[in-house]
Design goal:
elongated
C-alpha cells in the first residue's frame, strides 16, 4: 500500500541527497530512516550505529559458513 504524506522541505532535500548517495529512491530512503529509528527506539540501550549496521547486515545476502574438515 502506498500513502502520500507531507514532509518538511529540508527533510525532503536531505532524503533526496542521501537517497542518491545510497542508491535508493526518496521514499525508500525515508522508509529506511523510519526503520532504523523505530529499531533504535525499541532498543534504547544500543548505539544507533550498531542498530543501523545490524539492520544492514540482516539485509545482505550471504553464503552459509562451512567449517573446514579437521
Amino acid at each position: 500500500m502506498s500513502v502520500s504524506i507531507r514532509i518538511d522541505d529540508a527533510l525532503y532535500d536531505t532524503a533526496k541527497a542521501r537517497a542518491k548517495a545510497e542508491m535508493r529512491s526518496i521514499p525508500q530512503q525515508v522508509a529506511y530512516w523510519a526503520k532504523v529509528g523505530r529499531a533504535a527506539l525499541d532498543n534504547p540501550d544500543l548505539p544507533v550505529e550498531f542498530v543501523r549496521d545490524t539492520l544492514q547486515a540482516m539485509e545482505e545476502e550471504s553464503e552459509p559458513f562451512e567449517l573446514p574438515d579437521p
